[in-house]
Design a protein that fits this description.
The complex is a heterodimer of chains A (320) and B (266). The relative contact order of chain A is 0.11. Chain A has helices at 10-15, 17-27, 29-71, 88-95, 97-131, 134-145, 152-163, 168-175, 190-200, 202-215, 218-226, 231-258, 263-268, 276-286, 290-314; strands spanning 75-77, 80-82. Helix content of chain A is 75%, strand content 2%. Chain A contains 15 helices and two strands. Helix content of chain B is 75%, strand content 0%. The longest helix of chain B is centred in the first third of the chain and has 34 residues, at 52-85. Chain B has 266 residues and is mainly alpha-helical. The chains are: A mainly alpha (320), B mainly alpha (266). Chain A: Belongs to the binding-protein-dependent transport system permease family. CysTW subfamily. Chain A: It comes from Litoreibacter ascidiaceicola. Chain A: InterPro entries: MetI-like, MetI-like_sf. Chain A: Keywords: Cell membrane, Membrane, Transmembrane, Transmembrane helix, Transport.
Chain lengths: 320, 266
């Protein structure tokens, strides 16, 4: 990098490039020129280095997403695609009740899953951050993440086994004499989808909240208590507001991908628990109507993005 | 704070419940996946050895996993190094776009790639799955590699350059050895993600299914379920071994660069 500048003040300069900047700028006029060339080489090297990844993402993500967007304004004409721009797909998506039901149900399920997952996960993150001794924290985090490196398909399928008519839960409760006949409200409906997805996304919520809690300066909590606040009020007025960036991140990390889940609704949702991803798949692979599938994808993503932005805006005061 | 500890333990049971059932049913001597258990058997594991379609799917998944993990680690090294070492224009939007697949629903990635590939007249093969898997594994690789690169003391590299090394020489002789544990961890994580990924493979695979696509096709046949359980048990053992190795290398990398351990992946 800056071999011309680096002799003598090696440590300071290199660890803190910003500081070098300021110091040499003040030092002399020639320094400014040197710095602007340095910035140029820095920028050039950075851009060159990132270009393979950036180009890959451009070609395999940006271009495909743009294509989906374009497709949503085209229409299927038997085996070929009619490329005249039309709002037909969107009109159909808004008027045909089946699409509306799928979209609204998906948003509802994603919302419920998000709330359930975050509310259940917060105490765990809090427990690990505040009540587990420092040397055992890594072990707890490891324990929490392990189950999620096993096949997602099989985990979703096993929930079907657990929640089923003569499944683990029902046979267990029957055996204990707690119920007289198997519970049926827990499989092949939205409840089952919520339970399975809440399980699938658990670590994605625990980790960001945990990281936010870890960052909280513990002396602030002591200060609050010293100034006469009780435990509960300290939690709600100090801990929770400071943990909000983690909660917001966790919320988005669950809410956005959940809308597109295909496996769980197919396995445990039954006919009334199917979500928009199942409809998108049907349009693309079964009905061979890619433009309609594209329009539904765009609508789902648009709705999720809009809700996420509103959520971010509502929480802006916690995010600096 | 006793109730919090109780809650944490109940929660862990909830997290581990499905995973623990897998080995239970894979050794259960019954064709129906339900309680009560019927006795011990290893026949479901023996059955696995005789299924050719499974072996094909496994080989295919291993190939896709290795290639995707290699590509995403290379792309991850470029991006992680660029973002931790240099300041350049449009850094935030570029990095944002690269990390986007982390939150984007996989079905959106899958259908958008499918549409483009169909329009360009590509036929679906293992390579189309690799394209998709590389895309979704790269953000994970970057997350792991960034922490390796971030912990580096830049003065080491500067010293090498001052002592007459070329920039590439300094990178390959000083930086690479220091981040090798991070590279190994990134490769293993990307490999595990690719091996487990279903939706993208489901949409983009051609005639040769991957392992999850094969498993999906078997879930419809009740008779096949016990052997699917056995297969799942083997997969859990395999991913636990891989993850322990990855965690070992990640910790070693953090110790090597002298940074503080912030716990687990992600």
């Amino acid at each position: 990098m800056s071999s011309a500048l680096s002799t003598g003040r090696l440590g300071l300069q290199i660890r803190l490039p910003h500081a070098t900047f300021a110091v040499s700028c003040d030092a002399d006029q020639g320094g400014a020129k040197q710095i602007s060339t340095r910035f140029d080489t820095d920028a050039k090297r950075g851009l060159t280095l990132i270009s393979p990844t950036a180009i890959y993402v451009l070609l395999l993500l940006a271009v495909p997403l743009a294509t989906i967007f374009a497709f949503s304004f085209w229409s299927q004409d038997f085996l070929s695609i009619d490329r005249t721009l039309t709002l037909k797909n969107y009109r159909e998506a808004f008027t045909d009740p089946i699409y509306r039901v799928f979209l609204l149900r998906s948003l509802w399920i994603s919302g419920v899953v998000t709330v359930v997952t975050v509310v259940l996960a917060f105490p765990i993150a809090y427990f690990v951050s505040f009540h587990v001794p420092p040397e055992r924290k890594a072990l707890w985090i490891f324990l929490i993440t392990i189950p999620f490196w096993t096949s997602y398909l099989l985990r979703a399928f096993l929930w079907k086994v657990i929640l089923g008519f003569n499944g683990v839960l029902n046979s267990g409760l029957l055996g204990l004499g707690l119920i007289d006949e198997p519970l049926t409200f827990i499989l092949y409906n939205t409840n089952a989808v919520v339970i399975t997805l809440a399980h699938a996304f658990a670590p994605f919520t625990i980790l960001p909240i945990y990281v936010a809690l870890e960052k909280i300066d513990r002396s602030l909590l002591e200060a609050s208590q010293d100034l006469g606040e009780g435990t509960a009020r300290t939690f709600f007025r100090v801990t929770l507001p400071l943990a909000m960036p983690g909660v917001v991140a966790a919320t988005l990390i669950v809410f956005i991908p959940t809308i597109g889940d295909y496996v769980t609704p197919r396995l445990v949702g039954g006919p009334d628990g199917l979500m928009i991803a199942n409809m998108i798949q049907t349009q693309f692979l079964k009905l061979n109507n890619a433009p309609m599938g594209a329009a539904l994808s765009v609508l789902a993503m648009g709705a999720v993005t809009l809700i996420s932005l509103i959520f971010l805006f509502a929480n802006r005061r916690f995010l600096k | 704070m006793n109730w919090l500890r109780v809650y944490a333990i109940v929660y862990l049971v909830f997290l581990y419940l499905p995973v623990l059932l897998l080995p239970v049913f894979s050794f259960n001597d019954a064709t129906v996946i339900a309680f009560p258990l019927q006795g011990f058997t290893t026949q479901w594991f023996k059955e696995l050895a005789g299924i050719d379609a499974l072996h094909g799917a496994l080989k295919n998944s291993l190939f896709i996993g290795i290639v995707s993990a290699t590509l995403s680690t290379i792309l991850g090294i470029c991006a992680a190094r660029a973002s931790t070492r240099y300041r350049f224009p449009f850094k935030a939007p570029i990095m944002g776009a690269i990390m986007l697949p982390l939150v984007l629903p996989e079905i959106i990635v899958a259908v958008s790639l499918l549409v483009v590939l169909m329009q360009l007249g590509f036929s679906l093969t293992s390579w189309t799955v690799i394209m998709g898997h590389t895309l979704i594994c790269t953000p994970f690789a970057i997350a792991i590699l960034s922490s390796s690169f971030q912990g580096l003391d830049q003065s080491l590299e500067e010293a090498a350059v001052d002592l007459g090394e070329t920039r590439w020489g300094a990178f390959s002789k000083i930086i690479l050895p220091l981040v090798t544990p991070g590279i190994v961890a990134s490769f293993l994580i990307a490999f595990t993600i690719s091996m487990d990924e279903f939706i993208i493979a489901f949409f983009l695979t051609g005639a040769d299914p991957t392992l999850p696509v094969y498993i999906w096709s078997q879930l419809r046949f009740p008779k096949r379920l016990p052997s699917v359980m056995a297969l799942g048990t083997l997969l859990i053992v395999a991913s636990l071994v891989l993850l322990s190795i990855a965690e070992y290398f990640r910790r070693r990398g953090i110790r090597r660069t002298g940074a503080k351990d912030s716990g687990g992946f992600l």
